[in-house]
Protein: Leucine--tRNA ligase
Organism: Candidatus Nomurabacteria bacterium GW2011_GWC2_35_8
Amino acid sequence: MKEYNHLKIEKKWQKEWEKKGIYHAEDKSKKPKFYGLIEFPYPSGEGLHVGHIRSNTAMDIICRKRRAEGFNVLYPIGWDAFGLPTENYAIKTGIHPQKVTKKNTDIFRKQLKAGGFSFDWSREVNTTDPEYYKWTQWIFLKMYEKGLAYKDKININWCPKDKIGLANEEVVDGCCERCGTEVEKREKEQWMLAITKYAERLDKDLDDVNFLEKIKIQQRNWIGRSEGVEIEFRLSGVGHPTAIKVFTTRPDTIFGATFIALAPEIAKKITGKDFGIKIEIDRENKEKIGVDTGLKAKNPANGEMLPVFVVNYVSAEYGTGAIMGVPADDERDKEFAEKYKLPIIENYKKAGFKDYGKKITQFKLRDWVFSRQRYWGEPIPMINCEKCGWVPVPERDLPVELPKVKNYQPTDSGESPLANITKWVNVKCPKCKGHAKRETDTMPNWAGSSWYFLRYIDPKNKKSFADFKKLKYWLGNDPRHSGVDWYNGGMEHTTLHLLYSRFWHKFLFDIGVVPTSEPYAKRTSHGMILAEGGVKMSKSKGNVINPDEIIKIYGADTLRIYEMFIGPFDQSVAWSTDSIIGSRRFLERVWNLQYKVQKNKKYTEFEIEKTIKKVSEDIEEMKFNTAISTLMIFVNEIGKLDFISQDVYETFLKLLSPFAPHMTEGLWKILGHKNSINFESWPVYDLSKIKNKQIKIVVQINGKVRAEIMIRAEISEEEVKKQAISNETVSRHLSGKEIKKVIYVKNRLINIVV
Ligand SMILES: [Zn+2]
Ligand SMILES: [Zn+2]
């Protein structure tokens, strides 16, 4: 007997698969296509996280099953490599971010290859490669051309620690998402992308895609569509505009209004005065504060004059920046009214609005702040000319490459380090050839990930970001119901990456360069892997698990099985090194079964049919943990036998192969096959074999065996009892007696107590 040696087996088959290129996707094929996608990793200096293994294995299992089902499968991988950690590392060490990225991606690639994922490595992309970001810049120019990219002086969220402008999506509870520092407001000229022009479609088209409901809900909440009414409240006195426009989703409550509340910016616009109120909209449960402006506004419904307050809980960015306070119907308004002793009118009459305002639809979604004052990002391909203003870099001059700099430190004035490279900054205006300067802002790290799944389809194309025919093949022909077939990713990217990439894709659809209006047909998500004890893994806590170690000691197959077995896929679960051994022992048991295989022996087909059915269904529902326990139960069952048939063992290996591809490939060859198990078709189950399976049941009366009956496996308990009692022998023994109780031990016996 040869022992299971994972080190030898895994290296051998990884090499062989790579040499033969068996995971390469074909751009032309008669087979149906399947495009499975995972979020490409940010190659951090910490190396691959065990969480990556979890999500990668899940989609790997699905893709392997699809190949076995006869699909031409695209399962690509690449690097989302622009971003702050690499830049901060460069600031600290002086090593160029490109070098750091190269080193990190080399490590990640090696680690991923050791995991045995069936990626098509020939399609690897890297967002920091000028050949890649050339097209990111090209998309920006197209957006500029269509008026979707514009420069605006706005109040941005500013992180004083990172010295960076943040998008609303990057502010959590008023603090920087990256470092936790309290965010300040700063007025700055920024490039903006008009995602709000797509708000209606981004909301509505969620109806057509197969996303998990919780993902749809998060997107909808973020887009924040609300239908309401804009109502004019006329102001008394002079020296200011004559009316305030109020936005409300509840125009029927107008008779209950007792005050008007304004956002600080709106109050300043109307009165010219600063009331010293700071907006606290990002914070929940913050105390409501306000100042009476002295203005009075006339309620158009009943003519009453209402006091006008400037408050800290109404944002200028939502609706009109002015609301009517209806304390009887709104918790926030009630809290405010009680504090400032404003009237609260209970039981006021409800209006059907008609005469007071006009219907409008509002969105919470804001335009996307697209400028970053940092080095390590895609340069924004714009030139500012003294005469012509903003002029786009001509397409033939793309990519605008990042120049070499000595110092990556952002300046305190908030300008990018690129601003110091005068040789790069000073250029001729493409229009008038006069003196001009390059834009020194770079794009946010969400830019490259907004379209990467398109580049996988045609990664080496020099003429366009991807050939339209190839896009049509991989995304489908139906413009409304296609895209990447299955995209799995983290819940943390639901309001950022997922929304941004849907927006970019819709834009590309509108200009006719992609065939579908939605990028992803199906989106699911995974839970995180936490450290032992349920806390987040972090370098500082020293609780990070290095997958390399686990692979070395137990093998990639064991790690894959363990991470799929660890708990329900959509939930976060704590790592436990002690439990890995269980997964390892399971694989050893499978390995040792080879010595029981006999070619001509028959094993009851019922169990394997059930196993095929359950494992097939569980994979589709991402219930990987129960799929594995089904496989384990099966191994326990056949492990009890003296011999097992080769047929059954091979079917079992096919079911296990997406989970443990190396070992099953090894066993496949040992069983005498020349071809890879990767080319075997997925087992199909025969429903009739499961349904028609008969089970023998012993029938007792008061503990004495009186009969045996045969029942069909799937019938109900009630039906079994009925059949037992109506059996000829049993009914003879029961005649004249009163049945007190019927006890059923499933699939084994029935005891009738008389
Ligand atoms: Zn920060
Ligand atoms: Zn010019």
The mean pLDDT is 91. The pocket of zinc ion (ligand 2) is lined by residues 385, 387-388, 429, 431-432, 434, 436 (CB under 6 Å).
